[in-house]
């Protein structure tokens, strides 16, 4: 489990695979056991998340028919490609990125509004 915290919000936790996917989307090192998203980095992180969600939702229009292009699959993430030390197993591919990222986005938005940073810790 990886916990994300900001002073103005309740902490949220994600399974390792899901948290690492979100960290990769926002350009953070997903191999770090802890880290920080600074106040200055929050706008870019939120934008990167929204762009990844839009790409996933647009993927069915590509018409390839492959499983990664179904609406409920995270096309930005291969749920079976994890580090050997990831004990949480594969991410649930049936949950869209929009749904999975919502608590994280809310935490980031609140931190941005309150002009603070977000930290994560495994």
Write the layout of secondary structure elements.
Blueprint (H helix, E strand, L loop, with lengths): L1 E5 L2 E6 L1 H10 L8 E4 L4 H17 L38 H17 L4 E4 L1
Q: Which key features would you list for this structure?
A:
122 residues; alpha+beta; four-stranded antiparallel beta sheet; 3 helices
Strand content: 15-25%
Proportion of helical residues: 25-40%
- What is the number of helical segments per DSSP (H or I, 4+ residues)? 3
Q: Trace the largest sheet across and list its strands.
A: 2-1-4-3
Instruction: Summarize model confidence as the mean pLDDT.
Output: 81
* Class computed from helices, strands and strand pairing: alpha+beta
Q: Uncertain spans, ≥5 residues at pLDDT below 50?
A: 62-86
Indicate how many domains the architecture comprises.
1
Number of DSSP strands?
4
Compressed to H and E, one letter per element, the order equals EEHEHHE
Could you tell me the radius of gyration in angstroms? 14 Å
For the record, give the distance between the C-alpha atoms at the N and C termini, rounded to a whole number.
Answer: 6 Å
The shape is: globular
Major sheet details: 4 strands, antiparallel
Structure summary:
The chain is α+β, with helices and mostly antiparallel strands. The protein has three helices and four strands. A hairpin with a 2-residue loop joins strand 1 and strand 2.
Task: Describe the protein's architecture and organization.
This protein is of the alpha+beta class. The protein has one domain (2-121). 36% of the residues lie in helices and 16% in strands. It has three helices and four strands, in the order ββαβααβ. The chain has helices spanning 16-25, 42-58, 97-113; strands at 2-6, 9-14, 34-37, 118-121. Strands 2-1-4-3 form a four-stranded antiparallel sheet. A hairpin with a 2-residue loop joins strand 1 and strand 2 (9-14). Helix 2 (42-58) packs antiparallel against helix 3. The longest helix has 17 residues, at 42-58. The protein starts with a strand and ends with a strand.
């Amino acid at each position: 489990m990886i916990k994300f915290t900001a002073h103005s919000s309740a902490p949220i936790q994600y399974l390792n695979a899901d948290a690492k996917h979100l960290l990769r989307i926002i350009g953070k090192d997903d191999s770090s056991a802890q880290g920080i998203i600074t106040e200055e980095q929050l706008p870019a992180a939120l934008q990167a998340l929204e762009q990844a969600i839009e790409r996933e939702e647009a993927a069915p229009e590509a018409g390839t028919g492959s499983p990664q292009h179904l609406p409920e699959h995270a096309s930005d993430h291969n749920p079976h490609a994890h580090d050997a030390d990831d004990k949480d197993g594969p991410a649930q591919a049936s949950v869209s990125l929009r749904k999975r990222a919502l608590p994280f986005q809310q935490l980031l938005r609140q931190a941005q509004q309150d002009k603070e940073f977000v930290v994560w810790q495994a």
